[in-house]
Design goal:
It is a single chain. The protein is mainly beta. It has one helix and eight strands. It has an eight-stranded antiparallel β-barrel with strand order 1-2-3-4-5-6-7-8. A hairpin with a 4-residue loop joins strand 7 and strand 8. The protein is elongated and about 125 Å long. The termini are far apart. 26% of the residues are buried.
């Protein structure tokens, strides 16, 4: 009897060593369809725009320096380019620092002049349209921009100028994630020259 008890005790002690340890449950496989990044990036961005700037009147700031220009060169138009660096404060609101320049051509007697300046741009998207994956990708917005500018040649259209502009625009965030494309139509006002105009330009933006 004692031998049997000792044999059972020995088997009880040896059994755990003879049975292989059970492996831990394998981790669940990652769902390959699960998104690993945002379809629409938000944050710091760099934007570029290029289009047309038109002015409805071009008064002569210093007629004594430019006697052949007359009191005004009438309508003027030319290329407008801009560079913007900013940040999305929310998915609908953004604030940026902008630098832009335009080359305007008026009547032959008046000649051509340039406007270069820098300032701020505030944008608010009041409407967003979602795609089939529930991402807001298409937006309608309004924006306001103000730049402190200098004009060349000095004294023709002016020397220093405060340019105010703003209006509606649209933006589409492409499936390349970081890139968006858009267009804007602005009312433009040169405060010192008291000259109104408009600007229309496509835009492209890269968000980091």
């Amino acid at each position: 009897m004692t031998k049997r008890i000792l044999l059972v005790a020995a088997l009880s002690l040896a059994l755990p060593a003879l049975v292989p340890a059970q492996d831990a449950a394998p981790p669940l496989e990652e769902n390959p369809k699960a998104p690993h990044f945002n379809d629409v990036e938000r944050g710091f961005y760099v934007g570029f725009d290029a289009g047309y700037l038109g002015l409805f009147r071009t008064p002569t700031a210093q007629p004594d320096r430019y006697p052949y220009a007359g009191s005004s060169g009438g309508n003027a138009g030319g290329v407008l380019v801009g560079l913007e660096i900013g940040r999305d404060l929310t998915s609908r609101l953004s604030l940026g620092i902008v630098a832009q320049g335009g080359n305007e051509r008026a009547r032959v007697s008046y000649g051509a002049f340039s406007i270069y300046g820098a300032g701020l741009d505030l944008r608010y998207a009041y409407y967003g349209l979602k795609d089939r994956n529930d991402w807001e990708r298409f937006f309608l917005y309004v924006h306001a921009r103000g730049t402190y500018s200098r004009t060349y040649p000095s004294g023709l259209f002016g020397s220093t100028e405060f340019l105010v502009q703003g209006g509606p625009g649209l933006e589409y965030f492409t499936h390349l994630r970081h890139f968006s494309l858009g267009a804007a139509l602005d009312y433009v006002y040169a405060a010192r020259a008291r000259a109104s105009g408009f600007a229309v330009y496509p835009t492209v933006r890269y968000t980091f």
